[in-house]
Amino acid sequence: MTTLFTSDHEWLRIEDDVATIGVTDYAQSQLGDVVFVELPKIGRSLKKAEAAAVVESVKAASDVYAPISGEVTEVNDALSAEPALVNSDAAGKAWFFKLTSNSVSSSAKADDPVRRDVSVQPLTSGSTGCPAFAGHDDLARNIP
Length: 144
Prior knowledge:
By secondary structure, the protein is α+β, with helices and mostly antiparallel strands. It has helices at about 25-30, 80, 85-90, 115-120, and strands at about 1-5, 10-15, 20-25, 35-40, 45, 50-55, 60-65, 70-75, 95-100, 120.
């Protein structure tokens, strides 16, 4: 299993040909208390960088983007019932949706053009927040 991060603070966990997508702990901390999550419909085809889901907090609403192209095969209905899971377990139980795609398994290879195109970073041990901005929080896009 490989975990990668986007510059928009989404994570994707790749296992075989399935990518599970969620938001980083940094993103949820910038949003504040999450009160609503809108998930994509199962069967929906998404293009890379397309808005796929919406997360709303007491501060703002933000889109969750598809880090790769693919078809939504599963959504986390627990988030609809308990949106606060995003705050309590962003990297675990609060995953948003799963995608299948021909490019999923190849995205885990560092030298693969799909991975470079996705703009993802591998998880580094001991990192906090989003590894793509580790030590550079001033460069991170703050969510209003």
